[in-house]
């Protein structure tokens, strides 16, 4: 298959590329602004990197889509600090530019695999009705199912939700094209993937990455680990190899089971609060890598507005229902939370070679 990965130079895209190139059946074209994460794949005979900015390159992107068998769209601003600091840019890239990709797929009758987000689900009912729900901490309130769960977002002045909203609207348009039989698609909603090559360390590069990279940086520098609004919010973390295993099954689409389907991809058993994440990462670091280089960092509490700026709001909790991926694709995540964190951290503390001790499931 000729596969076009738009945004294939990013964290998820570089891992998909590596996995696809292990099969002799695929030609992979990656279009991105950057190729730094693709060093292992550059030079491979079935791989081609195309440097470009989708906002100023419409003719070439349309031609690439025309020439592909399947299009995987990963391009987005995917970092909460940007939803708050540049909401219009987030909307323009994640919705307006991505909609053009959808429309090119309609025009040229190409199958589209669109990366959406678990953030479309927003907040839990329990977070709104806390005092009225006697069992508000019951995980059942936070299990999100692709085709049944309603979406609960914050008010407009909490502009963090523009990311979720842009992704949601794109999903709805893709679904509508599907209804008219003008587009064959699959939508993927990832739940907090982590692993080697995610983001960057803020002490080494300007910017405000996702929490895993902030906590890693704190371990390296000894600076405090910041718990936003107390760190009581919870996430389920998915190891990138598990995620890519599912994504590649979706790309290969056995018996067309993924046609016009939406899939959650996540590890429901790997739930943790952000506060506990800080302590767990510190504990793993102390056991595996700490030799007294710096003081171990202390977690401190910081408000969301101080850390991100005005307009920040948050998902309180989100657990994926993965029954659909299990039943249609025979997929099952295999890495527990400790493995997920230890293997992801190993890349940063041991270097790329540090991942060689990670068990390879076949
Ligand atoms: P990422 O930022 O690492 O990857 C996005 C890629 O898009 C980057 O390589 C970036 O250079 C590229 N890009 C951005 N603007 C571009 C432009 N104008 N032209 C060309 N390329 C451009 O993010 P990721 O974590 O790999 O996420 C990939 C997709 O999955 C995104 O759509 C994101 O919203 C979604 N997602 C990811 C997660 C996760 O757990 N990582 C969770 C939910 C949703
Ligand atoms: C992320 C991003 O929106 C996307 O990458 C993606 O769509 C999705 O969620 C995902 O990865 O599945 P979020 O989980 O909120 O959103 O992103 P993080 O920056 O990793 O934050 C997680 C939690 O940690 C948030 O509650 C945040 O407030 C908190 N946080 C962040 C801290 O407590 N300390 C920090 O230093 C940074």
TrEMBL record:
SUPFAM superfamilies: NAD(P)-binding Rossmann-fold domains. Residues 3-266 form the NAD-dependent epimerase/dehydratase domain. Gene3D superfamilies: NAD(P)-binding Rossmann-like Domain. Pfam families: Epimerase. InterPro entries: Epimerase_deHydtase, Lipid_A_modif_metabolic_enz, NAD(P)-bd_dom_sf. Coiled coil: none annotated. PANTHER family: BIFUNCTIONAL POLYMYXIN RESISTANCE PROTEIN ARNA, UDP-D-APIOSE_UDP-D-XYLOSE SYNTHASE 2. NCBIfam families: PRK11908.1 (NF008872). This is NAD-dependent epimerase/dehydratase domain-containing protein. It comes from Entotheonella factor.
């Amino acid at each position: 298959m000729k596969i076009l990965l738009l945004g294939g130079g990013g964290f998820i895209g570089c891992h998909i590329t590596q996995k696809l190139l292990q099969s002799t059946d695929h030609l992979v074209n990656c279009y991105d602004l950057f190729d730094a994460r693709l060093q292992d794949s550059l030079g491979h005979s079935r791989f081609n990197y195309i440097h470009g900015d989708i906002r100023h390159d419409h003719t070439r992107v349309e031609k690439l889509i025309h020439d592909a068998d399947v299009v995987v769209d990963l391009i987005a601003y995917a970092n909460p600090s940007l939803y708050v600091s540049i909401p219009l840019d987030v909307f323009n890239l994640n919705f307006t530019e991505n909609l053009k990709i959808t429309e090119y797929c309609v025009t040229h009758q190409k199958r589209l695999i669109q990366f959406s987000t678990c953030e479309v689900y927003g907040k839990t009912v329990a977070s709104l009705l806390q005092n009225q729900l006697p069992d508000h901490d019951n995980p059942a309130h936070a299990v999100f199912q692709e085709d049944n769960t309603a979406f609960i977002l914050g008010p407009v002045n909490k502009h963090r939700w523009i990311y979720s909203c842009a992704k949601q609207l794109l999903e709805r348009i893709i679904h509508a094209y599907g209804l008219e039989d003008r587009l064959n698609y699959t939508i993927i909603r990832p739940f907090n993937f982590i692993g080697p090559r995610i983001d960057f360390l803020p002490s080494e590069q300007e910017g405000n990455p996702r929490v895993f990279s902030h906590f890693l940086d704190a371990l390296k520098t000894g600076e405090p680990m910041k718990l936003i609004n107390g760190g009581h919010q919870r996430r389920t973390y998915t190891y990138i190899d598990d995620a890519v295993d599912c994504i590649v099954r979706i790309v290969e689409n056995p018996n067309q089971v993924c046609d016009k389907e939406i899939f959650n991809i996540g590890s429901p058993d790997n739930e943790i609060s952000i506060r506990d994440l800080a302590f767990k990462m510190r504990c793993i670091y102390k056991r595996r890598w700490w030799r007294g280089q710096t003081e171990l960092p202390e977690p401190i509490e910081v408000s969301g507005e101080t850390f991100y700026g005005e307009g920040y709001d948050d998902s309180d909790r989100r657990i994926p229902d993965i029954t659909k991926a299990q039943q249609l694709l025979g997929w099952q995540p295999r890495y527990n939370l400790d493995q997920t964190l230890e293997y992801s951290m190993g890349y940063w503390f041991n270097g790329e070679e540090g991942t060689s001790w990670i068990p390879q499931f076949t």
